[in-house]
Description:
single chain; mainly alpha; 2 domains; two-stranded antiparallel ribbon; two-stranded antiparallel sheet
Amino acid sequence: MLNLTYNYRIYPGLDQEAQMLDWLEQCCRVYNYAFAERKDWIGSRKCPVNACSIKQEYIISADAPYPDYYKQQNALTRAKREIPELKAVHSQVLQDALKRLDKSFKFMQKRGFGFPRFKKFGQYRSFVFPQFKFKMTSRGILAKHCLDAAWGSFLEILKWVAWKRGVYFARVDPNGTRQTCPQCGVHTGKKELGERVHHYSECGYTTDRDVAAAQVVMQRGLVLAADGQSVMLPAEEGCLGTPMKQENPTARKGSPRSTR
């Protein structure tokens, strides 16, 4: 059996490296500001009602809500309009800094110790793009390197490897997967970023938003794989008594099909 391994490495130029270092500095800046905001809010709630601290006191309105990830993310959008340095950094890169801080606080709350700290210069060493998109990576300072690394041909390589291993391969339309209920297949409308739970009142189905989207993707893949045969979709188990006939005469096993 022949095993194929693909390994790609990107070497940035001097200008690209300088820009990435600036991105790291801005991420560290966002991380420290968001951490100070949370730290001050927590400190303002530690003072007794009938006494004040001898050394210092945090003065924050009692009605001010806790600056969680979603509130700080909305504030980041406004900050990018006012601070030119932040405009040069991709929004998802800066959002990842807030996610790291949020994970640190949740981890501290889970184990009961280990309060997060400020990031010093050089301690913030990496950034990520949470949503991998070929169109996004084919533009900007990494465009040539991304295309040279054959990221754009990844699906073609995957299709060939799947054929070699005898595994079914098909391209599933990802549009609307987070706006469709996997239980009944009804389009539920666009969800706000803060809505992390999928709940459709008509059928009563409730689950995590990303889990629901993954279930919709799986169901669409089963429809393509059925190729006209009877198939019971996971969403139909327990709510329908007979399998659902999926007529898809143009889909053929082994050949990708895109609905776009």
